[in-house]
Design brief:
two-stranded antiparallel sheet, alpha+beta, about 150 residues, about 40% helix, Nucleotidyltransferase, domain 5
Length: about 150
């Protein structure tokens, strides 16, 4: 059963602006058996036909256990594999680069969500909860669009 996928369209208005569609990454399973739903991710990519993907460089987090680190690495690999199979060119972006472009400091994920709320106030309902900090991926897409 495919989980509900929430779609967000981020808009940077203006002649030189940009658009970013952000979804919650589809997953299957629960707990230790939770995985990226590569089939659902591929279907979304095929439907939206992105020309390029900007993906934050994956790195181990301090204090992250081996199990959660492995799960994270596996998720990153699945996403990169789906993008490659769909022939979507990828640029790996350093976290410090995209955060600097949005004037974000440190490793606090909440500041990214707050910045996304400032840039996309019409999407407040979809960015309202702190646990949705991953939806600030629109900031990475916006960073890539402005390169």
């Amino acid at each position: 059963m495919m989980p509900l996928v929430t779609t967000i369209l981020g808009v940077d208005p203006g002649i030189c602006g940009g658009l970013a569609i952000v979804i919650d990454i589809p997953v299957t399973g629960t707990g230790p058996k939770e995985r990226i739903d590569a089939i659902a991710l591929r279907a979304w990519i095929v439907a939206h036909k992105p020309r390029h993907a900007y993906i934050e460089r994956a790195q181990a987090m301090p204090k992250q256990g081996a199990s959660s680190g492995f799960k994270y690495g596996r998720a990153v690999g699945a996403i990169e594999a789906v993008l490659a199979c769909c022939e979507i060119p990828m640029t790996v972006v350093e976290p410090s680069a995209w955060k600097k472009s949005h004037r974000l400091r440190g490793k606090d994920k909440e500041s990214g969500r707050q910045r996304a709320l400032q840039l996309f106030p019409a999407q407040h309902a979809l960015l309202a909860l702190k646990r949705w900090h991953g939806r600030a991926a629109a900031l990475i897409a916006l960073y890539g669009a402005l390169l």
